[in-house]
Structures are given as C-alpha cells and as structure tokens.
Amino acid sequence: MIKTNKLVMIPGPTPVVRSIQDQMARETVAFGDAAFVKDFSEVIADLKAMWRCDGEVFVVAGSGTMGMEMAIANTTKRGDNILICSNGFFGDRFIDMCTRKGLNTDVLSAEWGKSVTPEMVEKKLAEKKYQAVTVTHVETSTGVEAPIAAIGEVMKKHPEIIYIVDGVAASGGADQYMDTMGIDVVLSCTQKAFGVAPGLTMVWASAKAMERRKSLGAIPESYIDFDKWLPVMHDPSKYWGTPAINLVWALKESVRIMKEEGLEERYARHRRQAAMFDAALEAIGFRVASEKGFRAPTLSVYLYPEGSGIDDAKFRTVLAGEGAQTAGCLGGFAGKGFRMGHMGNIDKHTLVSAIAAVERSCVKCGYAIELGKALGVLQKGLVNE
Ligand SMILES: *Cc1c(COP(=O)(O)O)cnc(C)c1O
C-alpha cells in the first residue's frame, strides 16, 4: 500500500486548494507594483463589503493572536475596564494580553462545552462601566459557538462600549455581519475558514471603533497601530511595513472563491456540513462536546465513546496514518477526545475521506464499530448537496 495523503483536518490550518497555492507560488513583485496595488485595494474593498463594515479593514502580516492584540491596542488604554467573555482556551488568551496592557480585566467564563449567555453579559454590564467587551465567536478548544448576534443586541443598549469579536475560527465559515450584529471590531486570520496558509491577520473596525482609536491619541504600540496602517489600506502603494504580497494574492483568491460560492450559501453549507459530521460521529458512539444549540459550524470536539478502550494519543497517530490529521483536546477535555476542523474550502471528497479514516482508525484501535456506519450517515446527507 502506498502512503496515504494526510488531510489537514485540525482546526487550522485547513486544506489549501490548488488555485490558492498557485497564488502563493507566483513571482513576487514590488509592493508598489501597480497591478499588486490594485489587487490589494480590491481585497480590502471586498472584505469591507462582505462583513458589512462601515469603518476600515486592516490586512497585516501576522497570526490571529496579533489580530487579538491589534483589536485591544487600538480601542483601549491603560486603566480601562474590559469584560472578557471566555468559553475556553482562546477566550482566556485575552486575559494575559489585557492584563499586560494594564487594563482592569473581568472575566465571564462558561463551563467547558457551554457558552457565556447574553443574560450573563447584560447583568455584568449593569453592575459596572466597561470600555470594551470581548467575545470569542467560535471557541476552538471546545467547539462552542457563542451567540454573537444575541450578545450584540445587549451591546446595542450600551453604545459607549466597544464590542470586539475574535472571529479567528469562524470568519468565512459562520455568519458575521457587523451592522446588524452591532459588532465594532472583528479580528481574524487566513489559515482557518478562509483556507489560506497562515500569515495574515485581518481586522475589521467599525466607524465607532475608529472614533475610539482617534480619542486615544498616540498609543504605545507601533507595528499594530491602526494609524500607521490606515494610509496603506487607503493606498497600498504607501509604505509602513512590507505587505506579505503573495499571501495577499492568496487571500484575494480565497475571497473570489467565497464570492463565487456566495457568502450566505457558504455559511449555510458550513452548518449543514457540521451537522452531517456530528451525526456521523454520533452514529458510532462519539459524543459532541459542545452543547446543542451552541455547536460550531466550523469545528467539533468529539469525545471518545465510554468503554471504547480508545487511547487518545494512539488513536490520533493511527488516524493521521489513515489520512486525517486532527488535534488533541485542551483543558477540561484533554485526553478525552479529538478536535476536528470541517471548515473552509473542503469538498465532498475531503469530507468522505475524513470520516472513512476515522472509521478505520476506530477498528484499528480495537473499537469494533460496523465499518460504513458513520460514512452511511454522511453519505445520506451529501447526496442532497
Ligand atoms: C487559532 C485561534 C487564535 C490564534 O490564532 P493564531 O493564528 O494561532 O495566532 C485565536 N483565536 C481563536 C478563536 C483561534 O481559533
């Protein structure tokens, strides 16, 4: 048997399709190249329109974590009060970041597998004055999707507060509309539902967020200062830091694919795809770790069936050998299951192959399922696609 290709089914990076790879392989040009400047401007305009952003979009070299820091740096100052709504590992990541900046941080936490609710946020906002609130749209450690629209309704009653959404494991796979959801800052990056290699962070800032930036005057941060990048985003022939030219092209191709699929359909497809994956794994005894009603459309945490005798590390090694790379669980779920992404530009072949690999791995690890059972559930869904 020849070696099986490994599908990257971790919660990011996600599979990168050929046409996006081709953009990264292009001959690099000068950042002032007229054609590149036009391409960059078009990506910015598209991202702004697609997220229904009435302010500015920043596309800067860096990972998602930099986007988190960029959001905080440009909307808060030392001594401000910030409310961090955390559903797990990535929500918690804001705590250290904000504490280092000298913010007074309050944390609303949910149990592992559950989400902070709009009611919890409302109560907290009534108790104290906050300058900003953060919510992690899809918590990558638990597979929980926070109700960002419903929390947005609460935020609309507090127009003086900046509503920041960490969209990293959601943007391009789950609905994010800044206008109707009342969001002031969304931050994301290329390697998750955008299906591009890692390397770019995208930050959408509403007109209100830009007003807040203005009110802060000079900020301590330099590379991630909105003020430094704004002239470049308005005219990419200008210089602040060298843009990641090939990644900008790759992002442009990703945006083209999204527009071709249609954003609404893309979001709906992710929800259908997730439901099929969850049902397939449940059919062979796995448990979805996130609570019903809060299950992310982009990734899932699957807990091993009780009494299956599956050894976590062994299972994921066997699964990688069978063709699907997945991630181990974090925090409260560590050792109890695996995390699988099902987001981005993935087609039916990928979905079928991933579930088939899971089935073979179960049998190879001594968990005697009926081969084809999960696959059958998936196929029944896919035949209607
Ligand atoms: C992956 C992830 C991040 C961090 O992104 P990096 O590119 O790894 O820095 C932040 N938030 C969420 C929700 C994520 O899934």
What is the beta-strand fraction? 15-25%
Topology, number of strands:
15
**pLDDT below 50 for ≥5 consecutive residues: which ranges?**
none
How far is the first residue's CA from the last residue's CA?
32 Å
Quick one: overall form? globular
Description:
With 385 residues, the protein is an alpha/beta fold. Helix content is 42%, strand content 16%. The strands form four sheets. Strands 2-10-9-8-5-3-4 form a seven-stranded mixed β-sheet, sandwiched between helices. Strands 11-12-15-14 form a four-stranded antiparallel β-sheet, with helices on one face. It has a two-stranded parallel ribbon with strand order 1-13. The longest helix has 21 residues, at 263-283. The relative contact order is 0.17. The mean pLDDT is 97.
How do the helices and strands line up, and which of them pair or pack?
Layout: E1 7-8, H1 18-24, H2 34-50, E2 56-61, H3 64-73, E3 81-86, H4 89-100, E4 104-109, H5 118-127, E5 132-136, E6 138-139, E7 144-145, H6 148-156, E8 162-166, H7 178-181, E9 185-189, E10 200-205, H8 207-216, H9 226-234, H10 245-261, H11 263-283, E11 287-288, E12 299-303, H12 312-321, E13 324-325, E14 327-328, E15 337-341, H13 348-364, H14 373-382
Parallel strand pairs: 1-13, 3-4, 3-5, 5-8, 8-9
Antiparallel strand pairs: 2-10, 6-7, 9-10, 11-12, 12-15, 14-15
Helix pairs in contact: 1-10, 2-10, 5-6, 10-11, 11-14, 12-13, 13-14
The chain binds pyridoxal-5'-phosphate (PLP).
